[in-house]
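Exercise 7.
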Amino acid sequence: MVMTRWLRHMKTAVSLARGSIRDKRSTYFGAVVADKKIVIGSSVNIHNAHPRLKWIYPDYCGIHAEAGAIINASRARGDLRDMDLFVMRVHRSCEIHPNSKPCDNCTSLMVHFGIRRVIYLTEARISSITLRGNGYYHDWGPMEILKEKWENL
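Solution. The predicted structure, written as tokens, is:
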């Protein structure tokens, strides 16, 4: 039951990332903040959010999908404690990228806002980190095992 809910949120993040494909970058991120069954906030990487930054920093990313999802969720709900954040990354070809682990800055932001757990892919395996206490890491297994459930959602 939990895994099916997680896969549904991961699929939403993939749909967001695929919908953001507009330019020649090689990969795209989508992120979803969810409270059990309900999506509270979502976002994609926002590149070159300000025109002046593009001129000064040509490779400036703007806002990472994780940070954007947290901002949108905090506007909608305020308190993000005990929520989960799902991060997915896709190639320009729309294939799921085997690694979508958040950067250290986004992880720090998640801890600051009280996000309970971050779920992502690493080496084509579904992984999660509980951000409280000792940062418990859990490997949920290869994505291939879950393909049938993924396709039927």
